[in-house]
Amino acid sequence: MKESVELLKELSMAFGPSGYENEVVDVIEKELRDICETKRLNSGSLLAVKKGNGEGKIMVSTHIDEVGFVISKIENGYGRLVPIGGVDPKILPSQLIKIKTREGFQSGVVGMLAPHLQKKEEKKDVDFNSIFVDLSCAPAAQVGDVATVNIESERMGEEYFHGKALDDRASAVALILAIEELSKVKEHADLYALFSSQEEIGMLGASTGTFGVKPDIGIAVDVTFADNDLAYAPKIEIGKGPAIAIGPVIHKKSYDLAVKIAKQYDIPYQIEPNPGRTGTDADAIQLAYKGVPVLLFSIPEFYMHTPVEVISLKDMKWTARLLSTFAMEWSGIDVH
Question: Is 199 a catalytic residue?
Answer without folding.
Answer: yes
